[in-house]
Amino acid sequence: MVPDIFSYPHSILNPFMKMLPVVFFVIAIYIFYRCRTIYGGKLKVIATLLIVGGIAGMLASLSRFEGDYSVAWKWLESMFFLALAIISLVIAWIVRQKLKNATRLFGLTEGGDRE
Q1: What is the pTM of this model?
Q2: Averaged over 68-77, what is the pLDDT?
C-alpha cells in the first residue's frame, strides 16, 4: 500500500507540487521583467520572449492544477506548454546566433579554441 502522503488524490503534496511551479514562474517573470527594463537591444528582445515564455509556463502550470477537475483544462495545459517550448526554441536560436557571432569576433572556433 502507498502511504497517504504519496497518494495522488489524498496527499497534501499534490496541490503543493502543482502550485510550486506557478510560484517559480511568477518569480522568473519578475526577474525577466527587471532585465527587460535594464537592458536594450537583443537582450531586451530575449527578456521579452522569456517573459512571454514564463507566462505560458505559468498558465500551463495553472491549467495542470485545474485539469484534475475538467478535461478542457488539460488541452490548455498542452497548448501552453507547447507555446513555452516554441518560445524556448526561438530564444535558443537567437542566443546561438549571438554566440556564433561572438566566437568569430574573438577568433574562436566552435570548440572554443583559437584559430
Answers
A1: 0.76
A2: 81
